[in-house]
Amino acid sequence: MAAACDLTGLRAWVTGGTAGVGLAIARTLLAAGAQVVISGRDAERGRLALQHLASERAELVLGDASDPVQARAMVAELQSRQARLDIVVASGGAADEKPGLFHEVADAHFEQVYRHQFLNRVHPVRAALPLLRERGGSVLFIGTDAGRHATVGEALHGGLGAATIMLTKTLAREFARWDIRVNGLALTLTGGTEAFEAAMARGDWLTDLYSKAVARFPQGRPPQADEVAQTALFLVSPQSSQVSGQTISVNGGLSFGGW
Question: What CATH topology corresponds to 11-190+224-250?
Fold first, then answer.
């Protein structure tokens, strides 16, 4: 896939790129020849991510993507290094945002999930839009399959996931005038990430929930982060030049249909 989806000469910004699926996507884009800027809120995690990527084409900017002021500051910093941006991958989230029944969710948790599952997708794209408009490019939102399929314990995450799917469609129409494509990935449990491994090792209700979900995958395992990243690579590459406004579920065949 990497050979066919050549990104040589292109520059990508992956928010939430210091861990998990975001880091896997950054690694895959680098392998395809892109220059990649990763961002996150934690300086130490960012340093370790750069060590992991081990490439002169990898950069780091720090900031909270859910804050519009910090999102603009990150774009200003990456622009000061090089006035080019072709791809924005909006991902990431807070590690403690676990599933919970609607009536048991604390008030503060609602706002936290909204910030770290939705606003941290919106603000980076708004901030980067002036750069993307100069040459055209691609935006990719990383969302959740709970936005397509009702999932117990994920009423809030699912609602915001559905909002991200509609955001993807609407921005695809708006941004077409500037030759910017907008697509999304809807994910389920994803293996090969720290968050997944930590959940499976807790030995509590969350481990039980995840274990039951894993048992339902037709292939006997959930998608791995690197497999998700290959789909991301296709959607931001010229190979998908006629694909826009689409959200692809990478769920190992766990469910079908949706919108």
Answer: Rossmann fold (3.40.50)
